[in-house]
Amino acid sequence: MSGFDKVVTSYDAALQGLDDNMTVIAGGFGLCGIPEGLIAQIQKLGVKGLTVVSNNCGVDDFGLGLLLKDRQIKKMISSYVGENALFEQQLLSGELEVELTPQGTLAEKMRAGGAGIPAFYTATGYGTPVGEGKPVREFNGRPYILEESITGDFAIVKAWKADRYGNCVYRHTAQNFNPMAATAGKITVVEVEEIVEPGELDPAHIHTPGIYVDRVILGSFEKRIERKVLAKEAN
């Protein structure tokens, strides 16, 4: 295999270089499309003082919630925190710094960071606490606030398939924040369900080009359901 091969065979190698006080951008939405093994490895490494950028912080005993439990996260930049009682507890006690960000704005912060765009204007959040202290400009008679983009020391991402060059395909709703997160890390690590040989993926179906990816690791996934809702049987 050529020097473009990005596959690593251990989680130690996948997260080599991760250290205290770094910023980690994590893909996923709730428990859908989260890099379970990479999160578990961060817990195992015991790094502290992390700033984690993710839509939410998992649940109390799974996903990023594991890092909250071990007091490894100093600051969360997220858009939804409703399923995690420990998150609420640490926030209210002042133990955890939280920057709540509208969901679309958070996605655009990642995308813009990956595209080398330092900031952008959005109408979302104007006139609310989200917009307090941020520069405002008017375009076509409507006020917009300036939001800075986000980049991280590491991005951890979950994909369905990847080839050895790091080209990735996501499956259904597991696409969520993963493509944006993948572009915004100085080091991007993708945990996948299947690794294929170069040329096996249809180029038209690739969601994240390998140019953004530094390491690929084959994982196994529990794919826990966050909240199961069943239809009632008809009488």
UniProtKB/TrEMBL annotation:
GO terms for molecular function: CoA-transferase activity. NCBIfam families: pcaI_scoA_fam. This is CoA transferase subunit A. Keywords: Transferase. The lineage of its organism: Bacteria, Pseudomonadati, Pseudomonadota, Gammaproteobacteria, Alteromonadales. The keyword Cell division does not apply. Coiled coil: none annotated. It holds the Pfam family CoA_trans. SUPFAM superfamilies: NagB/RpiA/CoA transferase-like (SSF100950). Signal peptide: none annotated. It comes from the Bacteria. Belongs to the 3-oxoacid CoA-transferase subunit A family. The keyword Lyase does not apply.
